[in-house]
Every structure is written in C-alpha cells, then in structure tokens.
C-alpha cells in the first residue's frame, strides 16, 4: 500500500466525521481544505450564498494545504454536496493541484443525490478516479453501518 491522504472540506461536520472514520481505517493523513476567506454569512444566507457558489462552479481561493500532496500515491477527496454539486472549495482544490498519476477516490456527504457531484469532479480530475461512495446525513445516521460501508469501500482503493 502506498502513502495516502484524505483531502476534504466540511462545514456542517458530516464530511469531517466521515473523513475521520476513513483515516482511522486507512491510517492515511487528513488534510482539511481551508478557505482563504470564510463565508461571513450565517444561517440561511450562508447556505444560499454557498449554494450559489456551487451552482455556478465557482473556485474561491483556498489556503495552501498543510501537507504537500506530491508525496502521496492515493488521494481520497471528500466533499459535501451543495445545490447538487461539489463544494466550491473542493472545486478549487481539484483545479489548483495536479492529481495526474495518482489513484483518486471520491466520497460525498449529502441529503440528496450525489451523482452530478461525482460527474463534475470526475470531469475535472480526468480519468484518475477509481471509486466513489456517498453518505446520506452521516452524523444523523452514524449508527447505521457507516464504518462497515467504509471498510468495504476502502478495499477497492488500497
């Protein structure tokens, strides 16, 4: 098994929760994508503005990652689904960093259908995506076999 990293963005905690479970199972490094500027809105307006950013495929600035991803063979990317699409900060990550030659897997946390999110990310990553998985309302459903689902999925990655 090569060296791996889990690169993710989380606002509501679901994606961070799943990333932590994947880290515990794989031993991969966790790398949190951090916005250069936090969304300064609260409540519904924050969700509305974030959804608009996702809908239009915006790529807001992110801080440099805490670790150099060039040293990793496998990258697992985690995103919440916003307005049926990848999170804008994850869009920035896949646009900014070269994932060529790496094994890439995707996971999404959502309340609805993640397929468009996966299609968009696969299009941006261009051929490296080996596997996808999604979790509906992960924190609310954390006792419904999520860890077992991750263990099975990880077998297809490493």
From TrEMBL:
It comes from the Bacteria. It holds the Pfam family Flavodoxin_4. Residues 6-156 form the Flavodoxin-like domain. GO terms for molecular function: electron transfer activity; FMN binding; oxidoreductase activity, acting on NAD(P)H. InterPro entries: Flavodoxin/NO_synth (IPR008254), Flavodoxin_CS (IPR001226), Flavoprotein-like_sf (IPR029039). PANTHER family: EXPORTED PROTEIN-RELATED, FLAVODOXIN-LIKE DOMAIN-CONTAINING PROTEIN. This is Flavodoxin. It comes from Caloramator mitchellensis. The lineage of its organism: Bacteria, Bacillati, Bacillota, Clostridia, Eubacteriales.
